[in-house]
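Propose amino acids for all 210 sites.
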């Protein structure tokens, strides 16, 4: 499972407000809408967005990450309705829940706890070194080794292109989570590049368990 905008509604309620506060403080001449923020996180991804579009230096990126981390400490996003049922059924059937995310694992685990979700079996978050972090397939390879799984035994559920790219690189089936936004560019890419696009969580539940 991805975390942000797949399990919890966090971009609109936590990450974008944090980004706006940071930009107002350090780059007040640059303004972005929530829709633009979604698009740039989708492609080229958050690090390239900060460096190439926002014009941040490496030092700026580190400062933004520290600012964001402090902001997240005091803001717990809500889980999307229906996600708890998917995770609960996965565990009931003896399945594994692994989280591969661009949030820190400590906050992923907090969000699961605060939203009364079943605990993930393993998490790989932003603390993973950038050279092996999603979209690299390293986390999926570790999961396969740890649990003796083949690519076809797994599925990646993610709302953004880095998750898609990670799954493709590892040969793991992919399901696109389309319930967090209504941005045509993102939906069109996902519908064009994966057979499994789900606009609602109920659709995903039926796909996984029917």
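Proposal:
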């Amino acid at each position: 499972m991805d975390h942000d905008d797949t399990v919890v509604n966090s971009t609109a309620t936590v990450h974008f407000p944090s980004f706006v506060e940071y930009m107002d403080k350090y780059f007040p001449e640059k303004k972005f809408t929530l829709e633009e923020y979604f698009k740039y996180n989708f492609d080229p991804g958050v690090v390239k967005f900060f460096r190439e579009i926002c014009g941040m230096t490496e030092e700026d990126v580190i400062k933004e990450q520290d600012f964001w981390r402090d902001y997240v400490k005091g803001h717990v996003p809500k889980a999307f309705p229906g996600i708890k049922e998917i995770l609960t059924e996965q565990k009931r059937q003896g399945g594994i829940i692994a989280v591969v995310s661009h949030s820190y694992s400590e906050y992923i685990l907090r969000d699961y706890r605060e939203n009364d979700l079943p605990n993930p079996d393993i998490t790989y978050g932003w603390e993973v070194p950038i050279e092996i972090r999603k979209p690299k397939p390293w986390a999926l390879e570790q999961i396969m080794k740890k649990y003796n799984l083949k690519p076809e035994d797994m599925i990646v559920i993610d709302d953004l292109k880095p998750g898609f790219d990670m799954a493709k690189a590892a040969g793991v089936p992919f399901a696109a989570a389309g319930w967090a936004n209504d941005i045509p560019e993102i939906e069109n890419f996902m519908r064009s590049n994966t057979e499994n696009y789900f606009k609602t969580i109920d659709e995903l539940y039926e796909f996984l368990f029917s």
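The first helix runs from residue 11 to 26. Residues 170 and 177 are 19 Å apart (CA to CA).
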